[in-house]
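Crash report, auto-generated. Payload:
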Amino acid sequence: MSGTVMERAANATPPKLARQIKGLSDKTIAWIFVAPTIFLLLAVNIFPLIWTIRLSFTNFRVNRANLETKFVGLRNYERILTDSDIWLTMQATAHFLFWTLFFQVLIGFALAWLINRKFKGNDLWTTIIVLPMMLSPAVVGNFWTFLYQPQIGLFNYAIAFLTGADPSSFSMIGEVSLAPWSIVIVDTWMWTPFVMLICLAGLRSIPDSIYEAAECDRASKWRQFWTITVPMVLPFLMLAVLFRGIENFKMFDLVVQLTGGGPGSTTELTSINLKREAFEKWRTGYASAYAIILFVTVFGLASIYVKALNKVKER
Amino acid sequence: MSGFSVTEPSRGQKWIAGILVVTYALVTLLPLLWIIATGFKSPSDAIAYPPKAVFEPTLEGYVNLFTTRTRQTPDYLAENPPETWYDEIVRKYDMVVVGPSRYGERFLNSIIIGFGSTFLSVFLGTLAAYAFSRYKVPLKDDLLFFILSTRMMPPIAVAIPIFLMFRSLGLSDTHAGMILLYTAVNLSLAVWLLKGFIDEIPREYEEAALIDGYTRFQAFYKVVLPQAATGIASTAIFCLIFAWNEYAFAVLLTSGTAQTAPPFIPTIIGVGGQDWPAVAAGATLFLLPVMVFTILLRKHLLRGITFGAVRK
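Recovered output after restart:
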């Protein structure tokens, strides 16, 4: 083998040359391998973040680049935190977050538990359930507006069929009272499979021997469910909630296509609001401060949550 | 039936579970089937009440998707008989085909940007993941956390400076800009997933190769890479699906040359609002590859989704 020849050659030469023959040192390789990734992340993630922080203290506007940029201190932050409209979008976001997580956890866990009954063909059906989450939220969200049309929409027709109501009597995305639910429904349809898959991984990680031991102790199935299944799946479930929570806090594509924030601003989630400030009103400095506030919020909430998660794991 | 086991669900339980899951799956599938069906409907069938499940299929939606048309006078129509089958379809509405639509271009952009960024992020991600897995990298945990935390930022928040940066570098609305951007967004997930896959490969293989006189580099691409192939492939699929589906950056940073399909499809309009059969046709062509992919590769994909989240 050529390897052994190389080895012999390496042994026969002074150490310094030998290293050249044997290749680069570990440390150099490690740096060559990591550097491009770090560089790209710095350029596309960290550098823009720092830039955003800088902009957030100014009154800069992209569409009026000739205007003199002034340093305005914390005024942008002050204005955002005292703006009642922004609190309304925060409320819309909270409503969206709470109910999507609630339904996704409930349905996702139930589905995982059922799939774990290991009936025949369960993996194919699991895949079919997973399909919606693999698809483009913007394209699918756009099509859902068609399903939500009063009268001709499939969704309205199905609801009318089940409840006997008139299919043209309600408009999911047109009515202030229904629009917040229209986005919850589509998001739940799309992302329940994610929670389901993670729960399934949790359920499958529980060794059979624990149930067998419980059976020997004559614990009822009901008790087994609450004292074994639920606590063992809980860390997984909490992780799923973390991922979905972060994603839904950032939610943009699906909702912008579904309702565009309307009617009025009933479904104007923070991301949509931010997009309006930054790319429609072009208040760049103001929007940058807004972005920083959102980022700090997500980061803060996520860190607190991860601490709680680790506590659950330790138990 | 094999021997009695306390953990094996009873037959009755399996039946009930099966029926419930299949019911849910079918309901969940309905909107997707509806997209596919609407693509083959005529405009009047698409908006019929009650919604039509059985209809006469037509390619009008697909023709409208790929062409631009204008209305013509009866004289012109009488003088110029339709030359092609798709021209004949649009004649029904006193229209003639005047050229291709932009859908083809947008679809091609999706392919170029999707595959380009996937290749780059998997390539760079594999290198970084290998280094993180095998070497003592200073501040390793911090770096890994930093890589993951870049995912927490709302895309719109980063979009402001990226918009400015791309503008000054001449990258806005270019393929290269979008490929770089998607690569950066995907890298965090790619490194995270790939590190898991490479961690699983026993170090002994490489050590044996090193003893045989391979250099580190040779050991990496002759021993580690083939072992990690499945992991690399499923990571690639995730990156591809992300880039394929991405909308926020695409809609903010591209408008023409480099626009991908997701921002384009919702803008397909006909007479008086969205041309639903054409939108559905465009959506079908765009979504179907992902659906087929998911079903064919389900074993690797399902593992990957939970793997990335559950590990640690």
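Post-recovery validation: Chain B touches chain A through 106 residues (CB under 8 Å).
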